[in-house]
Write a structure and sequence with these properties.
193 residues; alpha+beta; Immunoglobulin-like; five-stranded antiparallel beta sheet; 16% helix; elongated
Length: 193
C-alpha cells in the first residue's frame, strides 16, 4: 500500500506543478510585435546562411497598405560598385494582391532604416516577370552597407514566406551578380498567431 500511496502522491504533485506552470504562462501578458527584424530559424531547406540578408518589416498585417520593408545589404556583400539593383520575388506576392509603390522606393547608405539617400534615377516594376529594377544615378561603392527602403507597400491578402532575391550590376557588366536573399514572413498578423 505504501508504494501505491507514494506513486499517487508523486503523480498528484506532477499534475499540480504542471497546472501551476500552465496557469502562470497563460496569465502572462502577450505584447504584439510591431516589426519583424530577424531572419528566423530555418529547419529544412532555405537559403544558405552566407546568402541570407537582414531586414525589418513594419505594419506587416494582411492587406495593409502602409507596410514598409527595409531590406538591408551588408557592405561585405558588395565586392564592386553597383549601378543597378534587381529584386525578384515570387508570383504569389502579386497573385495575392500584393503591390509596390515605386514612388516610395529609395536606397539609403548605412544600416537599420538607412541614412543619407543614394539618388535613384528610375524604378521599374514589371509584375509579369515578378521583378523590380532600381537604376541608380550614382554608383554604390564597394564595401558600402545600404538599405532598400520600400514604403507604401500593399501586403498580400494572406500570410506567406516570400524570398526576395537581390542581384546587382556594375556599369559595363554583361550579367548581374547574385548578392543574397531576404526570406520575408509577409502579412503576418501577429495578433492571431
Amino acid at each position: 500500500m505504501s508504494a501505491k500511496r507514494s506513486m499517487y502522491r508523486f503523480l498528484s504533485g506532477v499534475a499540480l506543478s504542471g497546472a501551476a506552470i500552465a496557469t502562470t504562462l497563460t496569465a502572462l501578458p502577450v505584447q504584439p510585435g510591431v516589426a519583424q527584424t530577424n531572419q528566423g530559424i530555418t529547419l529544412f531547406g532555405g537559403v544558405d546562411s552566407e546568402f541570407r540578408l537582414p531586414y525589418t518589416l513594419r505594419n506587416n498585417q494582411p492587406r495593409s497598405t502602409r507596410a514598409a520593408y527595409y531590406l538591408r545589404v551588408p557592405g561585405t556583400r558588395i565586392e564592386s560598385a553597383a549601378s543597378q539593383l534587381r529584386i525578384s520575388y515570387p508570383e504569389a506576392f502579386t497573385n495575392r494582391s500584393g503591390a509596390f509603390d515605386i514612388d516610395q522606393i529609395t536606397v539609403r547608405r548605412g544600416r537599420g532604416s538607412g541614412g543619407r539617400e543614394i539618388p535613384v534615377d528610375e524604378v521599374v516594376w514589371t509584375p509579369e516577370s515578378s521583378q523590380l529594377d532600381i537604376y541608380l544615378t550614382e554608383d554604390i561603392p564597394a564595401d558600402t552597407s545600404f538599405v532598400i527602403a520600400m514604403e507604401g507597400i500593399r501586403n498580400p491578402n494572406r500570410f506567406g514566406m516570400h524570398r526576395f532575391n537581390l542581384q546587382a550590376e556594375s556599369r559595363g557588366d554583361v550579367l548581374p551578380r547574385y548578392l543574397g536573399t531576404w526570406e520575408l514572413l509577409v502579412a503576418e498578423d501577429m495578433g492571431n498567431r
